[in-house]
Amino acid sequence: MIFRAYYPKPLFPPISLSDGCMLMCRHCMGRYLEGMEKVKKDNLLDFCKTLEREGKKGILVSGGSDTDGRIIGLEESINTLKRVKEETGLLIAVHTGYVGQEEANQLADACDIAFVDIVGDDETVREVIGLESSEMYTETMKNLISAGIRTTPHITIGLNYGKIKGEENAIEMAKSFHPEKIVLNIILPTKHTDFENIKPPSAGEIERMIRKSREGGQAVSLGCMRPRRMREIEKIFIDNGVREIALPSKETLIYAEGMGFEIEKIPGCCGLTEDLVRRIVDG
Predict the structure, then answer these.
(1) What is the largest CA-CA distance in the chain?
(2) What is the pTM for the complete model shown?
């Protein structure tokens, strides 16, 4: 039995195509960009070639959003990403915001996989994200899949200020696209944001969402974003059949080994599909 532990850094670094964010979602307010390397279009190809020479495996392309929910700089960088894909062996994952059909068609030759956040409640979209409707997420999924891009939906438990509101709908929306995998994140208090003092969902609420996500047979991963002080979360995921966790604690690895699992450490993102994981591991 295999338990996968994912470690994106240093071999699969996240990069931001922008210096900041215009959308300023209430739970992030641009703070998460601070952990990403800022790379502009003109330097992107050389930057990626340097990464390959250093033995890196891939990149996670992300960044701040404009007021329409689109990743700033993504459209202008697609042709450069195509060159990165053609001229290097790096695996390219893109954590997209909203993507229209034309852009999705262009992106098909520029990446290996897309990660798409899905929110299942319109009020949460308006009050937390600052956009109008959850339909933009399903539209993005449809556009990417229509363009032939494999996708991994990401769902954040407790996105409405720590409350469960629309998560089950988001899970059903995600499953309707028959993904190979769903990534679950858990909202956490982040300093210098409107969420600094929120209380995350309870362990029982999280467990209910895990069970709902596993219905249908697709794999489920626990993503990077979660409250690290809630140590029991990782064990709850394992106890409910999840065999993939990003950045697990040492205690969790010991727990998994005690259950008879062999630990497989993956230098990449937990949203990668099986063939892409094998591409990284087998070289």
Answers:
(1) 49
(2) 0.96
